[in-house]
């Protein structure tokens, strides 16, 4: 089954589009940094001219091989501080190889969880890109240099495939936003879409949206997922895994941008 193609086709039609436009990272570069020189003077005309490198260049290049613009120097200086701050805030520095009996496989921004049983195989796929948001709406002080935006959590849309022989029962699931109101179920995730097919998935396969399913059928399907190990507790751990992995990828991205800028 081509999971990447399936996710790409379904993404537009599912409710988890909110993740793609959700909370943005707390970049600390302010208008003050953009309009000032390092010594506090104003940048004239907004044009940055290349200057001869200095042996004391703070970007770490040694000042002998590369000619850096002012913007490049400021970028590297910011990235150096940001990387240190992100590493300090990193709660989990390693990603587990097993999650409640599911083997964990990492591939770029993709994560695959697999559990093999006697009669069936359960495969969970998700992508951590554009999945980070804050747990709660924070109170931001506009005068603060770096306001606290709350804990950043990755809550990706995920595919659950229950495979028996040549037949796959597939669910597309996503996290609910906010906390449930009184009288509502306490589920932290729901079914966006369900389908069943033979062999490999393709665009001709029929699928039904979760919000048009009969209410009792929907509850039975949620019970089925729980029996297969996809419970609220497990999905919370899935979010922990995604959060730790996404954070490590983000730090790696910052480091690669820094190396690219310095020419290393």
UniProtKB/TrEMBL annotation:
The UniProt similarity line reads: Belongs to the MAM33 family.
Residues in coiled coil: none
Q: Which SUPFAM superfamilies match?
A: Mitochondrial glycoprotein MAM33-like
Where on the tree of life does the source sit, at the highest rank?
Answer: Eukaryota
Q: From the Swiss-Prot or TrEMBL record, give the protein name.
A: Mitochondrial glycoprotein
> Could you tell me which InterPro entries the record lists for this protein?
MAM33 (IPR003428), MAM33_sf (IPR036561)
Give one Pfam family: MAM33
One of its GO biological process terms is: cytosolic ribosome assembly
